[in-house]
Design goal:
By secondary structure, the chain is α+β, with helices and mostly antiparallel strands. It folds into two domains: 6-166, no CATH class; 172-252, Alpha-Beta Plaits (2-Layer Sandwich), CATH 3.30.70.260. It contains nine helices and seven strands, in the order αααααββααβαβββαβ. The strands form two sheets. Strands 3, 4, 5, 6 and 7 form a five-stranded antiparallel sheet that branches. Strands 1-2 form a two-stranded antiparallel ribbon. Helix 3 (51-66) runs antiparallel to helix 7 (143-166) and helix 5 (93-109) runs antiparallel to helix 6 (122-140). The chain is elongated and about 85 Å long.
């Protein structure tokens, strides 16, 4: 039988192959939704890894796991036929998949950047890993599942960020306050000013420095809710009128 014969090409889209791909897709869809639920908890608390990152990692992990349960459908079933005809064991594709997933993991780590309390590139790294799994599905002959995983991944990256913005969340911001020399700030006053702006100090994030006879306070503040917290541009107008403030710095904190 020729490799490019209509019979060989049709085997990849036979009724059995399509049914297997649909079963794989149902597993992928369930994994994606469950990943969203776990990721929303992180997104709600203002973490860098949110629904998109958790969803992509969960669906890609499911894909490389579930295809191991359908060896009869690998390569359109041609691997099983060839093994039966030659009585020679076929190489195990799962070993190749293991090497691919490990190698691409190092590639994804290279796009993750950390600057201060901000971490970026996590979703990009997860999408790279998901793209490698799409390639694995194509290589093993699960064309339908690869197409569906591509649509799921693209939809996740395009629309889930909008969904996150609609859902309730408590984003975090980093605040650095530098006071005038000899001025003694009161923590209760700062906390009350933050509450008036819709924020509260995150536990365990408070640090105090002293240089040039001036105190410098650093801490992370959590929004009480999307409808209560003020944007950073509006916060600057409130902070500048606090007693004893010499300078300040406010930035988003996603870690």
């Amino acid at each position: 039988m020729q490799l490019l014969s209509p019979e060989v090409l049709a085997s990849y889209w036979s009724a059995q192959e399509i049914a297997t791909n649909l079963l794989v897709f149902m597993n992928l869809l369930g994994a994606l939704l469950l990943g969203f639920i776990v990721g929303y908890e992180r997104s709600y608390h203002g973490r860098a890894a949110g629904m998109r990152t958790y969803g992509l990692v969960c669906v890609a992990s499911c894909a490389v796991t579930v295809i191991a349960g359908y060896p009869n459908s690998w390569y359109g079933g041609a691997a099983l036929l060839q093994q039966a005809a030659t009585a020679t064991p076929m190489p195990d594709p799962t070993r190749v998949i293991q090497g691919i997933v490990t190698g691409v993991g190092f590639l994804g780590a290279g796009v993750i950047m950390k600057e201060g309390l901000n971490i970026s590139g996590l979703t990009t790294a997860a999408s790279i890993w998901s793209a490698s799994v799409i390639g694995i599905l194509v290589g093993i002959g699960f064309y339908g599942a690869a197409i569906l995983l591509t649509l799921l991944s693209a939809g996740c990256m395009l629309y889930v960020s909008k969904l996150e913005s609609w859902l309730p969340s408590r984003h975090a911001i980093f605040i650095n306050l530098r006071f005038l020399p000899e001025f003694m700030p009161q923590e209760a006053t700062i906390r009350q000013a933050l509450l008036d702006m819709g924020y509260e100090v995150a536990g365990g994030s408070f640090s105090v420095g002293y240089q040039g006879r001036a105190q410098e306070w650093r801490f992370v503040a959590l929004a009480l809710g999307q409808d209560f917290s003020k944007p950073l541009s509006a916060m600057s107008g409130h902070l500048i009128h606090l007693d004893g403030i010499d300078s300040f710095n406010v930035a988003h904190a996603r870690n």
